[in-house]
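Hello again, I could really use a second opinion on something today. For a while now I've been wondering how a particular protein folds. Please have a think about how the structure follows from the sequence. Here's the protein in full, and shout if anything looks odd to you:

***
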Amino acid sequence: MRSQRELERLLRERGVAAAQPTLSRDVHELGLVKGTDGYQLPPAPPEAALPNAGSISERRARKAERLVRDYVLSVDVAGTLIVLRTAPAGAQPVALAIDGAGIDGVVGTIAGDDTIFLAARTAAGAEKLARRFRQAIRDRVSGDPARFALRRRSARPARRRA
């Protein structure tokens, strides 16, 4: 494909709706480069030389883990909500990374300047998520990476937005 517009058209023909910003982010995360013949994969170096080796979902999970560990200051639970506090201007990038990672149990996020609300389906689910986020904060001190379970994605095609 020669352009993101062409990619969007090809996906739409297959029943997959995707906005241009999503396509741009995915093209970047896949490591595609634009050459004279359109988008293509760069020549592959040995796997060990890749700093971001792994699937896109694994890279997104690592990014979320790193941002939670580095920026989240506190974790509280209020019913089915988990409230994460960050330093000023830290909430948006952390929430975006959490959404992108597809962390199992997170229904959605709302972020302000220094506060993130994460919705869980149940109060028990919120408690479980809060424990995982608290562990990530403790890991900041120990240096051990946190591990978030990824959401299982369904095989059904994406819905079109109105």
User: Anything to note?
Assistant: The chain has a mean pLDDT of 79. The CA atoms of residues 16 and 22 lie 12 Å apart. The radius of gyration is 18 Å. Residues 4-43 form one domain.
